[in-house]
Amino acid sequence: MEGVADPRTLIPERTKSRRAQVVIEQAIKAFFGGNALVAVIVLALITIFLFREGFGFFGQNLANLRLYRQAGLEYVDIIRGNAAQHESLSRKLSEIRLREVRVMEKRNVPLEEINAALAPFDQFASAFSDTAENLHGLVSDLTDQASALKEQLFARAELLAQRNQLERSGAQTEAEKIVVPEVDRAAALARLREGSARFESVSAEITAKLYNLLAQAPAMPDPAGQKHFEQWKTRARKYLAGLPAASEKLRTWSPDTPIPWYRSISSFLFGRDWVTASFWQDWYGIIPLLVGSVLVSIVALVIAVPLGVASAIYVSEIASRHEKRLIKPYIEFISAIPSVVLGFFGIAVVGQAVRAASQSHFFKWVSFFPISERLNIFTAGCLLALMAVPTIFTLSEDALRNVPRGFKEASYALGANRLQTIARVLVPASLSGIVSAILLGLGRVIGETMVVLLCAGNRIAIPDFTQGLGAIFQPVHTMTGIIAQEMGEVVRGSTHYRALFMVGLVLFTITLAINYLAQKFVARYRMSIG
Amino acid sequence: MVSVAEMSEITSPTVVNQTAPMPNPANPKVERGMIEIEQLDFAYGTNKVLHDINLSIPARAVTAFIGPSGCGKTTLLRCLNRMNDLIDSARITQGSIRIEGVDINASSVDVVDLRRRVGMVFQKSNPFPKSIYDNVAYGLRIAGTTKRTLIDEAVEKSLRSAALWDEVKDRLHVSGYGLSGGQQQRLCIARALAVEPEIVLMDEPCSALDPIATAKVEELIRQLKEQYTIVIVTHNMQQAGRCSDHTAFFYLGRLIEFDDTTKIFSNPGQRQTEEYITGRFG
Amino acid sequence: MTATASNSRRVHLVQGILFWIFRLATYFVLACATYIFLDIGIKGSRTVFTSTPPFINVPFLTEPPQTLYVFDYEGKKMALSDRQFRQWKVEHPGTEVEASSIAYSAGGIWPCIVGTALLVIGSMILALGIGISSAIYLSEYSRNGPLIRLVRIAILNLAGVPSIVFGLFGFGLFVIFFGWNVSLIAGWFTLGLMVLPAIITASEESLRAVPQGLREGSLALGASKWQTIRKNVLPYAMPGILTSSILGIARVAGETAPIMFTAAYAMKDELPWQVTRMTDFFFQGVMALPYHIYVVSSKIPQNEYTERVQYGSAFVFLFLVMLIALTSIILRERSRSRLSW
Ligand SMILES: Nc1ncnc2c1ncn2[C@@H]1O[C@H](COP(=O)(O)OP(=O)(O)OP(=O)(O)O)[C@@H](O)[C@H]1O
Ligand SMILES: [Mg+2]
Q1: Cα–Cα distance between A354 and A470 in angstroms, integer?
Q2: In a domain, A61, yes or no
Q3: For residues C335 and B104, what is the distance between their CA atoms, to the nearest angstrom?
Q4: What is the value of pTM for the model shown?
Q5: Fold of the domain spanning C110-337
Q6: Do the domain assignments include residue A28?
Q7: B269 lines ligand 1 (CB under 6 A)
Q8: Do A404 and A524 lie in a common domain?
Q9: Are residues A87 and A198 in the same domain?
Q10: Residue B235 CA: which ligand 1 atom is closest?
């Protein structure tokens, strides 16, 4: 290297300060890079943390399901299922009665006469529900036994875990101090299973009584009512025919049949019950919440898409300059309304209005009106629509506006009018942009919390779809709502806590997928307009 | 292991005895403002756009790069002040560029110093959204000059030498965006001259100008070569003929011919050059 | 000839009708929003404004919430706040009244305003500091490799993740895992992280909108990278960054879900600065306006006594958030017309 020139000689007199400057430059770059790194790491952490807390759910839920079987709760629920069927049949009877009364009221039959006409039916109904008395007694006895056993098993498992923990951390003496009581599961279960025999006798009794009852069932005063009653009778017979199968099930039931690991996942993803903090058995099935979220979003989009797209077309193609300058910021302004204020407005105004409308004469012809709950899917959907409109509007308007002028001019040059140009040229050219706008609107709606928490009614149940469109006037709970409502009360690390994280994870995945799709459509839009 | 810097020294013997950047009478080969390009290959990603360029650009003269669109003129020009560093995929795959005998791509060369000495005027004029005055003063302020009088002087001097002074002297503090296209281009030239570079690279400086503005810029170029080494890219044959001393003709990323402008235009050595100049290219 | 004429008249008619439908749809949306603004504005201003000077209901804005006591006394309906009720009892010794109490319905919302302001300031400092720096790195320094592209896509997608998921994360990590409990600092981090992706994305977009020519022009004059960024990129990207930041403020101020179980208390008697030790300041929960609105609209009944505080809080909150949003919209419209290359 001797004799080699200092390559810095390009400007030799500034070398020193330049060197300092280079160091500063490097430091600045490192600072920004560091910040970016922090951001990326933290955001990655969120994802990892969500997954970590969420996936713990499956193990715990499996234990939960195993305990359900080992303590015999499952056994009791077989009998309970029959009792529930019986009750539902009873309910059906009172529904039939109600309808009958309404029909007669319309014919201006006085109340006494109605009651007189229905007296045999009432007798029948009460006799029917009486038949289940022993069944209910059996269920409640077994329930007590099984939950006692579950309690014991649970306590034992807790103590064992505690002792293991101590042993692992080396506190041998303390570990030995913990006495883990023995639970005689076999004996308890044997006692429980004596229920099989009882069930058989009870069901024989029910069968005999019911066939007897059915044989001398009274006739209904009204032919339509008779039809309903006949349908009911078929159901009742089916129920009776199912009783031996239940006995069989009880006999072959075994507390030691293993529960496969995937049951823990499938019971979450396809479970139709979300029951928590119950004395009996907790179920973490996401279906009612998912259905709730989806229904609310559908209602919101059905309202928001036509409005959003129509106003986007109006503003970008039809409106005058002055209108445009006013409408655009105004609609964007709407998107800044805080969701909790919208939710409050829903409770204070919209819910009442919806119910009042359903009671009005104007809507008399609608079969499922008047509605009973003012907070329901529809109320929440209306408000969410207002949140989705600005998103859909802004992005669709962008898409329409960015269609190259040439497309439009070419169409006009061919003699097309404005409507034809909009329908044949502009909308097709910006269709993927509009689809992406709708998707982003969906993402916003499905992830919205406060409006659904306040206005969707918060009843954890799959709506009764037999009512057709009436289903959207029933209260539901949603994925976002359940997290907001239950997160504050859970014990850290409990199955319930982790179940909520799983719901969050599902939400996370759904919104990511929606976003990703939306970006795909944006990319396609960019391609299509060149 | 041999570092890049060392390697360039091995391949470029002229560097070995080089000790000062100033014109070195002991070594006539190295002159202030001269550029030597040796066996240069250049690629954007996998797309090789320059092949084996060997070119020695003399100091204090105007050298014109001509050639059909896409042949790599801009690319080569941007190599000379390492503007291509900004493009992620761009790489010099082989060869070296030496300015005053120093390999400008050596790791020890400070790219900021290099760019201060090798100014550039871009194909598309790009004044900053600042006042005319601030546009011209930008380079000086960046270099640390704070004295108002010094800056005032330099601004006037460079605007004068860019033949813009008379047109703007009354509105130095309005936005550079308010100027016409031709004035904007001259503003960019003034801005480049204000930092007193030794080499000025001009990428089609007249492509957006009317004949009068073009004439002004050409006049300017002729004056500037007293002090500066100038490399100009142009599509205009007359312009190349009018204001350059040497001309390099490129075709498909290769240097086809390099010679005195008069020679190139009157008696080109290659058939391709002749066809291009006479417009029979196809 | 006549056939074409009538045909074209029909086409014209169809077009006219359809255009009117579009117009109606647009104005329907505007009308709905206006109705909300008016409803909350009118009913809320009954609480917030008064008919006598100073025309603003100062106690409502400067007092903490109190329980309201409603009872009949000598044929009159009395509605007294907690403090008034106690005083009334002192003044009427020996009278037994059956008072029904309604939580939160008396007093004002001052602690909520303070809490929301603290939450917004802290989380925005966090989000803007990290967000803008990250954006500068991503757009100016990073080489556009596959890794950076992945990071960019991830950040873009995270911007669409629902706020409740961030709340869930904040609760799990900050409140429980770090043991910060329900606290200001947990709220700062949760809200800050929630808007971070949006701020990075928007800031980077503004930076990239600055033409490359400006950077090249500056670098070609011998400016260093940082000089170029500071003098020739940031100033022109600033309006865009500012707009997105202000929108971020509106979002942070308006969100309820993420603070529900990370930072917000339904009721707290002390103001945030009434702490014994400095560190307690960061580790205390605060009241917040959005959460207060949630509480008063879901946990207490809807009647004539609660309307005051419900509409009053909603009005103040809506007013503040809309003011911020309006600032950002105006700012953007302005910069849009000023800076265009
Ligand atoms: N940033 C880039 N990335 C990838 N390829 C590029 C880039 N810039 C230029 N190229 C390619 O390099 C080749 C040479 O481009 P260059 O701009 O140097 O041509 P030119 O001779 O200046 O053309 P013109 O006369 O039209 O300005 C072209 O084929 C072009 O497609
Ligand atoms: Mg070029």
Answers
A1: 13
A2: no
A3: 41
A4: 0.86
A5: MetI-like fold (1.10.3720)
A6: no
A7: no
A8: yes
A9: yes
A10: 25
User: Which residues numbered 418-437 in A keep a CB inside 8 Å of some CB on C?
Assistant: 418-419
- What residue ranges do the domains of chain C occupy? 1-48, 65-107, 110-337
For the Cβ of B77 lying below 6 angstroms from any atom of ligand 1, the answer is no
Residue A21 lies in a domain: no
The ligand that comes nearest to the alpha carbon of residue B53 is 1
Q: What integer best gives the mean pLDDT of chain C?
A: 88
Out of B9, B20, B117, name the one closest to residue A4 (CB): B9
CB-based neighbours (< 5 A) of ligand 2, an ion = B 74
User: Does residue B74's CB lie within 6 angstroms of at least one atom of ligand 1?
Assistant: yes
CA A202/CA A140 separation, integer angstroms: 14
Which of chain C's residues have a Cβ under 8 Å away from the Cβ of B120?
216, 220
Q: Are C30 and A331 in contact (CB under 8 A)?
A: yes
Check CB contact of C335 with chain B, cutoff 8 Å.
no
Pair (A345, A432) in one structural domain: yes
Confidence of residue B279 (pLDDT cuts 50, 70, 90): confident
Instruction: For CA atoms C221, C222, C223, C225, give the dihedral sign.
Output: positive
* Any B CB within 8 A of A20 CB: no
Model ipTM?
A: 0.91
Residues of C in contact with A416 (CB under 8 A): none
The 10s digit of each residue's pLDDT in A465-510 is: 887 888 889 999 999 999 999 988 888 888 899 999 999 999 999 9
Distance CA A436, CA C156 (A): 14
Name beta bridge partners: C81.
Answer: C68
Q: Distance between CA B21 and CA B32 in Å, rounded?
A: 7
| Whether residues A340 and A242 fall in one domain | no
Could you say which DSSP state residue B55 is in? Answer: E
Mean pLDDT, to the nearest integer, of A232-248?
86
**C141/A344 Cβ within 8 A:** no
| Closest in C19, C165, C326 to A333, CB measured | C326
| Within a domain: A44 | no
Number of domains in chain A: 2
Angle between helices A495-529 and A431-446 (to 10 degrees): 170
For the CA atoms of A496, A501, A505, A510, the dihedral, rounded to the nearest 10 degrees, stands at 70
Closest ligand 1 atom to B45 CA: 4
Contact C151 A40 (CB under 8 A): yes
Q: How far apart are CA C177 and CA A65, in angstroms?
A: 27
Q: Given this model, what pLDDT does residue B281 score?
A: 62
Residues A221 and A82 in one domain: yes
Interchain contact, B114 vs A10, CB within 8 Å: yes
| Residues contacting residue C338 through CB under 8 Å, at least 6 positions apart | C239
B84 CB less than 6 Å from ligand 1? no
Percent of chain A with pLDDT over 70: 97
Q: Is B123 a residue whose pLDDT tops 50?
A: yes
pLDDT in tens, B135-189: 999 999 988 888 899 999 999 999 988 888 988 989 999 988 888 888 888 899 9
Asked if C198 and C159 count as a contact pair (C-beta separation under 8 A), the reply is yes
Cα B4 from Cα B95, distance rounded (Å): 11
Domain extent for A443: 288-529
Residues A153 and A202 grouped into a single domain: yes
pLDDT tens digits for C241-294? 988 888 889 889 999 999 998 998 888 877 888 877 888 888 988 999 999 999
A309 and A250 co-located in one domain: no
Under the banding of pLDDT at 50, 70 and 90, the label for residue C3 is low
- How far CA B92 is from CA of B5, B75, B224, B249, in Å, comes to 14, 11, 30, 21
Closest partner residue to A43 (CB to CB) among C18, C155, C247 is: C155
What is the domain-level CATH number for residue A307?
1.10.3720.10
Integer Cα distance of A61 and A57 in angstroms:
6
Closest residue to atom 2 of ligand 1, CA basis:
B44
